Amino acid sequence: MRLSLLDRSRTRSDEEEGTALVHTVERAQQVEAAGYHRFWVAEHHAVPGIASGSPAVLLGAVGAQTSTIRLGSGGVMLPNHRPLVVAEQFQMLEGLYPGRVDLGLGRSLGFTEPVRRALGRLESDTESFAAEIAEVRAHLAGEADVTAHPRPTAEIPLFVLATGAGLDVAAQLGLPVVIGGPILDAPELPERLAAYRRAFRSHHGSSPMVIASADALIADTDAEARELALPEVWAMARSRTTGMFEALEPVAQIRRTTWSSKERQRVEKGLDATITGTAETVSRRLQQIIERTGAQEILSSASTYDRAALADSDVRLAELLLD
Predict the structure, then answer these.
(1) pTM value surpassing 0.70
(2) Of 30, 88, 130, 222, which is the most buried if we count CB atoms within 10 A?
(3) Which residues contact 125 (CB under 8 A, 6 or more apart)?
(4) What percentage of residues in the chain have a pLDDT greater than 70?
(5) What domains can you pick out in the chain, each with its CATH number?
């Protein structure tokens, strides 16, 4: 079982936003030492709680401070970019860090309508998404009408973030999928994955592959791990009220805040959805996901305010899955 990490460069309430990017690089170094296979970064635009708006730029910094871990995006949102530019950016990364670069592709639009307008795209249909992925692949393979440079010396693997119709697109193009969030608990997921595997059209010998992304946090007790998940869950619950996805806050500060009944319900539901606990508890829940999905790899996407506790959890997760 491979273990990888998606770091969203979450900001913290008492720090400059740029500090989140420094921490992303530091976390990449830490998980490389722990044996993680990939380190992926995210693309979010005009979101107060996330500092990562350009995966290619951030991966350049991560690559310079690491030596073996694979570097990738979770993901580049194709509606925001021209396929040629995406290919050029990741071919540059491949030129700098040969044999280490992945390219995860998604179709999510901006966080709000004003952001979507600023990005120049208000909608993205499945057909356009599939066509744009195919165009990126053609550029990477040197098969497009124009040639992207620098030419890569090794193949850059593509991955599809399987939200919405992403599973169908991945099967059509013969690409691996990354699944996470609410879809992991959807009753229809096993059948949808079975359909993905049945419909898979191999491309140059490719075969179906599933990566399961989950928020996983380990601590000495189940209660302590659940508290570690609170800052992220609280930010999400608050966003439903304020419309703003805010920086991570300390647990003690959150507990001092007066919660509305709806916020309390959302927090409890969010905490229940995270994979938290002792190593034994987390192992049991991850095994359930692996058995349900047939995933060949776990992509941890957890975050919390306490950086030391997060680093400790990352190491424990590696000891759990990689030993």
Answers:
(1) yes
(2) 130
(3) none
(4) 100
(5) 2-217+276-322 (3.20.20.30)
